[in-house]
Prior knowledge:
Strand content: 5-15%
Number of helices: 10
CATH architecture: Up-down Bundle
Amino acid sequence: MTRKKTFTALILLAAMAGALHAQDSVLVLSVKDAEQYALEHNKELQNASLEVRKAEAVKWQTLGTMLPQVKAGFDYQNMCGYEMEMRMGPAGITIPMNPYGTLSVTASVALTGAQIVGTMMGNLSKEMADISLKQTEQSTRKNVHSVYLSILVMEKTLALLDSSLNNLESLQKTAQNAVNAGASEQVDADQIAIQVNSMKNNINSTKRSTELLYNSLILQLGAKPGTILKLTGTLDNILDMEHTKSLMNEEFDINRNYNYQLLKKSEELSQKQVLMAWMNYLPTLSAYYQYSSKTYFGKDEGMNMTPPNVVGASISVPIFSSGVNAAKVREAKINYRETKNTVQRTEDALMVQERQLRYNLVSAYENYQNQNDNIEVSQRVFNNILNKYKVGMASSLDVTNSSNNLITAQSNYIQSIMELVNAKIELENLLNIDIK
Length: 436
């Protein structure tokens, strides 16, 4: 193969690799696909999942302290030829202290009331980590849903602005032709040109905002930077007005709310801490078994006073702690009462919040309907003024005013959609129902 052919082949391979890489970096997502992708790749959610595994490990650490512990050891001693003399009257005996090694295996177990309560508290911590994971999943889906919809809103806004810009540019040409023909003044054409530039600025600003939203969605998804997103969802389907109206009448079960669930678990945990403080008054039970084997090296066996099997048990009873244990119990009881007060206050706050969020959703829904009608009317008025201007029945000032009114209507329309979506998601999160 010639150098030229080899170089050509390398270029083709590089191009194919680049094409495959580009294909891998494109994500085509509906809103549900985006939520599912985020649940699998979002880094914050992955950390929440690791917290669950960590809580499980801590629980088993506590449980492991209640189970038998076995350890083995080897001890070597060499007394450098020393011999121990023992005299019994005028006679005596000499006992050589030969080098030896001792292998020992010890099994022990200790049980306290604090260990039992600690295991209960470990279970509660695991349950709280599970709830936190679900709460993070809910928050992730909420953020993805909101950003996804914001992108669709911005893209619809761009389409509306582009349509208005085309009409203004056509009108600008008509106005300039009228000036060139001497049928109009230059100031009229200049006013139209100002509106064209203003519309172009709005379009560029909206494009930059859309690009920022795409980058935010990539971050929420946990995708690699530079990933190209193609969104297949439609604004009407995601808004789902029928679901929005049914949500207004959805019943509120406070026990389904994740914040409330976490607080109730905190209350149980605080209660267990009171029990833990009482455990300081209970005795500690322990037992052990030890097997030992002594081996002598190089010489005859010396005096062996090490028993091969030893069994032992003990009980330790606290008698007087100078009031420390009593103070710990009082402190734990106070913390428990504080936690109960927090739970009650949160219950009241959630009930108030539920009524407020329903009110927000109703108001946002009504405002959306008004702004939706308003933008349609503003668009018709704008088009009508343009047609009148072309035949000399409207002034450039009329065009300017109608253009400004249309831009304001579009801005209000966008704001009403975002308010509606946020109000809907906030109520869905409070009620803990699936985001639609």
